[in-house]
Design goal:
The chain is mainly beta and about 130 residues long. It has one domain: Immunoglobulins (Immunoglobulin-like). Helix content is about 5%, strand content about 45%. The longest helix has 7 residues. It is globular and about 35 Å long. It has a 6-stranded mixed beta sheet, with no helix packed on it. A 4-stranded antiparallel beta sheet has the order 2-4-9-8, with no helix packed on it. The termini are far apart. One of its GO terms (cellular component) is T cell receptor complex. Pfam families: V-set. One of its GO terms (biological process) is adaptive immune response. InterPro entries: Ig-like_dom, Ig-like_dom_sf, Ig-like_fold, Ig_sub, Ig_V-set, TCR_variable_region.
């Protein structure tokens, strides 16, 4: 039996009006076991690119971020999740290597930390 995942994307504005991040599509579906790439494009000069996942009835949870080229994963890291910042076309991808039913959720791409507990401060200390 084929299982389809519906993955919704949402976006968040940065602290400056010129910084906006926008998903390429409003939803994505996949067959279980396939790899899935969620993409957002942005405008302006950005420092950090963040990805969050939110299950129905739960708050968003931090997944992964790219901060000036340094990748920080959630603690503990989410298996099968990676980030790719493509500066040449001002976009960021969230890659899910082998989609599962448990990956069905709302995903947020953001330019700024959007939930408490984001590891941004730890990254700033190491840069």
């Amino acid at each position: 039996m084929l299982i389809f995942l519906i993955i919704l994307l949402s976006s968040a504005q940065g602290s400056k009006a010129a910084e906006v991040i926008t998903p390429y599509s409003d939803y994505q579906s996949a067959v279980e076991g396939e790899s899935v790439t969620l993409s957002c494009s942005y405008t302006g000069s950005v420092r950090g690119l963040h990805w969050y996942r939110q299950y129905a009835g739960s708050p968003p949870k931090f997944l992964i971020m790219d901060y000036y080229g340094a990748v920080t994963n959630a603690d503990p890291p989410v298996d099968g999740v990676s980030i790719q910042h493509r500066k040449d076309n001002s976009s960021v991808d969230l890659n899910i290597s082998s989609a599962a039913v448990t990956d069905s959720a709302l995903y947020y791409c953001a330019l700024e930390p959007t939930v408490k507990g984001n590891p941004l401060h730890a990254v700033q200390k190491s840069v």
